[in-house]
Amino acid sequence: MIVSPDCRFWTHLVMAYVFTFWTCYVLQKEYEIVASMRLHFLASEHRRPDQFTVLVRNVPPDPDESVSELVEHFFLVNHPDHYLTHQVVYNANKLAKLVKEKKKMHNWHDYYQLKYSRNQSKRPLTKTGYLSLLGDRVDAIDFYTSEIERLSKEIAFERERITNNSKSVMPAAFVSFKTRWGAAVCAQTQQSRNPTIWLTEWAPEPRDVYWPNLAIPFVSLTVRRLIIAVAFFFLTFFFMIPIALVQSLANIEGIEKALPFLKSVIEESFIKSFIQGFLPGIALKIFLILLPTILMLMSKFEGFICLSALERRSAARYYRFILVNVFLGSIITGTAFQQLNSFIHQSANDIPRTIGVSIPMKATFFITYIMVDGWAGIAGEILRLKPLIMYHLKNFFLVKTEKDREEAMDPGSLGFNTGEPQIQFYFLLGLVYAVVTPILLPFIIVFFGLAYVVFRHQIINVYNQEYESGAAFWPDVHGRIIAALIISQLLLMGLLSTKQAAQSTPLLIALPILTIWFNRFCKGRYEPAFARYPLQEAMMKDTLERTREPNLNLKGYLQSAYIHPVFKGGDDDEDDAITEDWEQENVLVPTKRQSRRNTPLPSKYSGSSSPSLPEVVHEQPQP
């Protein structure tokens, strides 16, 4: 029986609908499960400071009051029954550098003390210059003792400067409330008639805060993000040049034409197979090694205030980068390199058609890429060769004390900014090639099976948890899978438009439309669970906590939760006392401004029996 070409094309068309509906069904079920798990997690987890705390930014300047006084009076007026305490944000970046340098000097001092204790016949020596390689040779213990004393004085001076200089106080504060309900109302509402001031958002948990970026003025964030957007655009598209060179390695004829003296070597069967098979994937992997670090630095420059936001933004950019350079770049420069000039100048309507023609031709390359990047990457993850090599290098060159050894052995945390977009890239490959070249699917299935087993083990037994986001990544994951599904549909339309079944191509137009509608449905139905905290859930949690712990000292629990780490107790005696000094600043102060002479007294909190606020001195209104 002879099967007509049209019949075979109709099979591709039907399977496109099958894969689309199945993907949407699984995504909808998964979104529902993840949203339910997130709400259950928020309802059942133990008390955390971020449940009661809101970050307030862009506090307007006031000539009569400091930022601390202004924040306190604003929330006493507008949230009189729920406001509890606040902690202003200080620009302590310079102080943090001094503290870090002092710890480094302490470490060197301990190292030389230990060295001297083992051999007291000779005092250890060191050089005073750069990396202890230049300068005069002096007694190491005395030198680092003097350095520690010098840094202690600078740290004390810098702390005094921050405390007394109003310019060190940023127009932002962490504001804590007596209840989760009060915090939810504040975080999810507009505080002022002017929507550009008194901006509120949920505070990240204390260990998730990226403190250096809190010192960035809010007004500069827009400019910073514009700069990074332009920089990322040029990084993405100029990176196409090395990608094009890498993909040209798969073209034996091109190499022989450019380097004719290598013809006899290249024609060897083993070398030819290696060049066409594995060399492009390996070279591409090498080019991408430094990319995550570059993208993380770009996210930090943008000014995100928490580690989870930094990783989410880096993950989004990493996915877009590999989508353009690895997927589209490999297709365009690999099979249409000779027609690249015409591709640039052709109509935008012809781009899906051109790429669609190229997709089946690159199936072999992506099979190789899955084995080199995916399978080998998973094997490298379970073996952890890179951390093992780095540990031995640190142990040989950097480790001086047991504290150094512990830091060198730190396994770190799971890199969401790289692992998550890489896994989603394989979703993209699977969705694109499921209908066009199904032979790719077994390779992807093997990758996901290995990835599940390996990462489950690593998360449970190896990595440290750096923060808890409560599945905040999922909406981004869902959105990128939807984008991959739409890309696969458009490319299939471009491919079929070049075949004898061009008249069947319009039947695929319904797929992107249905997919976009499905995405809008999921955003409206499930995404609010990831963006807002239901007041009903907050009230239930508050009521349950008041019942279980009627004598909870909530203010004592929140008082120092969001103090900058350099002001908290550390290894030094002087650090132990600074926390108490900082906590004493969080007392309510008399109202100065005439417009706020009638600031209401906070009402007694009738549920939690938490200690009432210190008495506020109020001026009586003039008759």
From TrEMBL:
Gene Ontology CC: plasma membrane
Residue stretches making up the CSC1/OSCA1-like 7TM region domain: 224-496
Gene Ontology molecular function: calcium-activated cation channel activity
InterPro entries: Csc1-like, CSC1/OSCA1-like_7TM, CSC1/OSCA1-like_cyt
Region feature Disordered, mapped onto this chain: 574-623
Keywords annotated in UniProt: Ion channel, Ion transport, Membrane, Transmembrane, Transmembrane helix, Transport
Superkingdom of origin: Eukaryota
Pfam families given in the database record: PHM7_cyt, RSN1_7TM
PANTHER family: PROBABLE MEMBRANE PROTEIN DUF221-RELATED, RE44586P
Name of the protein this chain belongs to: Calcium permeable stress-gated cation channel 1
